[in-house]
Amino acid sequence: MNFLLEARRVIEEEAKALELLASKLPNQFEDAVNLIFESTGKLAVCGIGKSGHICRKISSTMASLGQKSFFLHPSEAHHGDLGMLDQHDVLLLISYSGESVELFPVIDFAKRLGIKVISISKSDESTIAKNSNIHLCLPNFKEACPLGVAPTTSSTVTLALGDALSVALLSKRGFTKAQFKDLHPGGMLGQSILFTFDIMHKNMPLLHAHENVQKAVCIASEFGFGCVGIINSEEQLIGIVTDGDLRRYSSDGFLSKIVGDIMTQNPITVHSDILASELLHIMESKKITSLFVVNEKKHPIGLVHIHDIISRKIV
Fold it and tell me: Whole-model pTM above 0.70?
């Protein structure tokens, strides 16, 4: 057997099934999204065998994107874990055949408590489909397993449908990158999602426009950022004086000049909610080493030096 050809066949079979799913999304997909979104409880995801593994991943993705969710093992549910459910929850049942007997007691319990049930299976005539408020029927495809029995294509397609539900809920909820960071504080992922407000200096070199250059020299030396922000009477940032400006304008009587006369007007600024990676791109493309952060009223609220970003190894 040519194992490379067999591997390509498996991947191509699963890719075709994913394309079929994309072109034939279940009719009640939007209803399922709305039901989960409008619930005041959690989303319990329940399945057995390979479907159970897919359930775990879907539940984990949901939780990471702002939807309170947990995996309910049907066997453990029979031995007390049904107590994890309450009437405000939504139950998502996954069984490709729709006939996994381990799920039936869970369905019965949900019915008694009035818990809304969403199911995913290959047939609208399956037992779990007939006992669900919303059923998401998978399109007709064959397993990539040459024996036609091992869950391969079916698990891939079900996982993709779960991802689609998760991302649709993210969009409907207006889930932000900042919220995502809050839920992922650890590891490389958490460290890579840095915003400008995470790294900016709040103690800044600022000077009113009517002050003289000598004071700007002193402040620039004190802070060491290579610049001084110039503000007006309303505390708005209107200009910037850099070390380069101070060198270019040096002459007799220079120190008595007004900073408003030598500043660069309307300097490039950013808001605090942009990603640090985007900020680095701005600074590199504009050849800026220090950049002020302002709020909606153009009041300076922070300053970032390019070394603050590079030291975090943001690329």
Answer: no
